[in-house]
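Notebook, bench 3.
Goal today: get a predicted structure for Hypothetical_protein from Hexamita inflata so we can plan the truncation constructs. The sequence was checked against the plasmid map this morning, with no discrepancies at the termini. Length recorded as 115 residues. Pasting the sequence as submitted so the record is complete.
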Amino acid sequence: MKHMMKVLKDTQNFKRNDLVYAESVESEVIKVSSLDKSVTEQVENIYLLEIDQDISASVQKQLKHVEDRIQASQENLEKRTEQFESQVASLQNQLQTMTQTMQTMLPLILEKLQK
């Protein structure tokens, strides 16, 4: 009988120990699950950060290309403006020469017509 009581007591202790162990394991599983979720979120954030950096690098490259094109367009516009101003000056000189020629020739033409 004493032996049966000891076995019963040992069995109860084993059950209690098993329950405590099971609770401990369950607690660790919850911690690991939470840690896994945290690590997954961090990996996702790192991945998103890498994507953001790739996008940023691409945008910077495109921006540099646009800036280069704007610079080239400005230089081209400056050259064309200089050419236009040169042509205007040339036309003004031609007009002035023609006006002087006409002012010189007109009295001669009128004189000949009156004769």
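The CA atoms of residues 5 and 11 lie 10 Å apart. The mean pLDDT is 90.
Flagging this for group meeting.
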